[in-house]
Design a protein that fits this description.
The structure is a homotrimer. The first copy, chain A, is built from three helices and 40 strands. By secondary structure, the first copy, chain A, is an alpha/beta fold. Chain A has three domains: 86 residues, 3-Layer(aba) Sandwich (Udp-n-acetylmuramoylalanyl-d-glutamate--2,6- Diaminopimelate Ligase, Chain: A, domain 1), CATH 3.40.1390; 148 residues, 3 Solenoid (UDP N-Acetylglucosamine Acyltransferase, domain 1), CATH 2.160.10.10; 33 residues. Chains in contact: A-B, A-C, B-C. At the B-C interface, β22, β23 and α3 of B face α2 and α3 of C.
Chain lengths: 347, 347, 347
Amino acid sequence: MPVLSLKALAERLGGSPEGDPEKLIEGIAPIEKAGEGETSFIANSKYLKYVQASRAGAIIIDKKTLLEGKNLIRVADPYFAFFQCLQLFYPQTPLYEPGIHPSASLDPSVKLGKSVAIRQSVVIEKNTRIGDGVIIAPQVFIGADCEIGEGTLIHARVCIRERTMIGKRVIIQSGAVIGGDGFGYVQKEGVWCKIPQVGNVVIEDDVEIGANTTIDRAVLGSTIIGRGTKLDNLVMVAHNVTIGEHSAVAAQAGFSGSTKVGHHALVGGQAGFAGHLQIGNHAVIIAQSGVTKDLPDDSIVSGFFARPHRDELRIAAYLKELPELIPRIRKEIKTLNRTNPISHPSL
Amino acid sequence: MPVLSLKALAERLGGSPEGDPEKLIEGIAPIEKAGEGETSFIANSKYLKYVQASRAGAIIIDKKTLLEGKNLIRVADPYFAFFQCLQLFYPQTPLYEPGIHPSASLDPSVKLGKSVAIRQSVVIEKNTRIGDGVIIAPQVFIGADCEIGEGTLIHARVCIRERTMIGKRVIIQSGAVIGGDGFGYVQKEGVWCKIPQVGNVVIEDDVEIGANTTIDRAVLGSTIIGRGTKLDNLVMVAHNVTIGEHSAVAAQAGFSGSTKVGHHALVGGQAGFAGHLQIGNHAVIIAQSGVTKDLPDDSIVSGFFARPHRDELRIAAYLKELPELIPRIRKEIKTLNRTNPISHPSL
Amino acid sequence: MPVLSLKALAERLGGSPEGDPEKLIEGIAPIEKAGEGETSFIANSKYLKYVQASRAGAIIIDKKTLLEGKNLIRVADPYFAFFQCLQLFYPQTPLYEPGIHPSASLDPSVKLGKSVAIRQSVVIEKNTRIGDGVIIAPQVFIGADCEIGEGTLIHARVCIRERTMIGKRVIIQSGAVIGGDGFGYVQKEGVWCKIPQVGNVVIEDDVEIGANTTIDRAVLGSTIIGRGTKLDNLVMVAHNVTIGEHSAVAAQAGFSGSTKVGHHALVGGQAGFAGHLQIGNHAVIIAQSGVTKDLPDDSIVSGFFARPHRDELRIAAYLKELPELIPRIRKEIKTLNRTNPISHPSL
């Protein structure tokens, strides 16, 4: 790990130092745990309460928050500076060196790029093409006729079924299953008949896929995860779904068949989508929402059935008051009724 | 792939052709993508908007929808015809040829039927019996004392724990875990004591189980998935659950311990069930429902706590109006109060 | 299996026998299925309806329920007695004998304790330390620099990524992924930049982790599962979460990043937590809750947004009445308006 002065670190982060410019920093840690030689950061005001007691050698903070008596680095975006510090103090090295482990089982027709690492018990089936610099951790399964783009990293125990196309610099976390059969049946006389799922999955460049997430292949055509999109763990993507570029999907969210999500969408954890929907670009789906209708660009929705989050909050506010409000309304009407001999109290 | 005239294809599908009966069709594709030589289909009216611009050589459609100037095949159930076309144009071949890969590790006591395919790194433990024509993809684990029925297909990286009984023609998608310990503890002086889970899982004939789905074994007796039932991905089936025959369960749904579901039930995605419930035959559980009570046959429920869907929709309609309605009621009462000198405005 | 008289079994369970004290019992079974030589138990009053028709040789039941004409064992806690019976009638033996299977691939730097069992195709990477009596089932992956404490049992196909610390007597069900990268990105000009996840996961003693559950490693520091805590299947624990000691988390629940849960908490299935929350000790989170705020000790919450369960039930009661109530209120106001010539009917 490198050691930098406060001044030098501030420069690297594009920020301005406050306090002792020569203070030496050799790492980064959470505010509650950072020691003398470490910088910390405040990216969420919830953690300001830890600042006074913190032993951190420096604190990365935004340009507005009042804070004195500490070595600071003032930056426009403390969370981005945190990211920069992690890159700086924890330089990443490849998980495995190039080479094919003897216990890996590759069909003779598999085409390998340069500097590929393939680890123990990996199975790769016929006609699959592996790009330059790809790393495949132990126990991964890759079916026939797949393509894995340059620089992609596949963690231990991932399963990629036949005909899946994976782009460049993709990262797939352990346990993910890509290209399993879509869930398609048609009922005939009370019995489900399985519809052959003859399509595939396309994962574009720079996508990341979380642990134990499942992405089913299309019945026809492709299920598509757009460039730069990130899926968290235990997400379900059904057949023929398309998720646009640069979107992010939190854990345990689920997309039913043929739904299309725009680019730069944000999907909260445990949210669910009905099938055959069109979800706009930059849409924000709050956690646990149940989306049953198309959504225009820039929508922010929550609840079940999902509606504009602003409306949902207003409804939630009234809901909260209901146990107090309804009896009061009833009472008021009774009072009015009592003073009005013609009407009769019916509530 | 076969090539058929419109007339011949219509005959195969039990439908009637409209347009050029000699038009040659050699495949099937979605309406937006189908080319000259392909048929498409309209099974959901949402896709009618693509019909006019479609280059499809033919369109499979129901008997009522008005549509002119296109080659059509009119059928009673376009989705079923779609299924028939997939079978016709994509004849399925076995995923693997029979044979035992040398890297598979079978206990000497394992009994194998005829024409079994067992692929790389598969582990099968003692006394397990594998039926004729079973296909076991790479990296599958099957514990001791299991039984796998004829013609069953187990995809890569499935895990089947000891004593699991699996019927005929079952399909298990990658990453599923069948027969893991049920989640059973009893608390003693603030500490959880693990209750031995000594039962098993029984999967009846013609069941399909989705990727990364988990089915726990019973504490005593069996957790049972009934004949012909289909479970999607990431479904949770707790110990001692029974799901009846020919039901379908969408992704990420979860069943708590000892709940019993009838036959021909439909369970939506992310729905959850409390334990020890009785859910009737042909019940329909809308996505994201939280079911906390027994349900009679033919129930249709939604919401949390799940109630009849009709009621839930009515409640949702009133909920939506609440932010407008409550202030209006308040105002009205104020007006009445103002015109009524005896009562006092309390809202 | 042992055979005991009713009297002897009652003594073992700390209960009192009723009926024939010499009745021989040689097993335990559910009330609907128990035969002559088996005891059953009633731990949930839902099952009382099966008592009269039951052929069970004895029934374990609480001290209050009226029941005659049956051999009984009266105990303070029938569920705990059930647990005792399972231990008694199904003595557990280790899943595998000690020994290293030749197909396992251990880095030469791996340090093994005494009496370790390591099965087929297991991969263990450099510097990992395995304690005495650890059992590692087939196809498990354990990354570099991990520690696995004494007596821990790791079921088939578990994945443990680098630097994970696992305590003593931990049980990990199949398919779990421990130590995958946390879901952390920072957006820069519309593109997600991956934040290196340089922390780890710490699993304390006596924890159990369910099938296909995922526990992500911390961005910095540790994601922690406290001593004695039990996680069910398909649970998601994000980076930097801490779950306190002796808590229990039902299937498909999810915890967002940096949330801290106290000890002896109970979390229902499919419940979700926003990030950076503090959840108190002994908190009870009802199934499917969406928790968005800190919760004090001993909270019982439900709903979305989660609120005290008592309030949620009251709101639910009013909600249910809404479709009847609102029209009645409207009608009442109309009647009052009609009898009051000054105001005007506006609803």
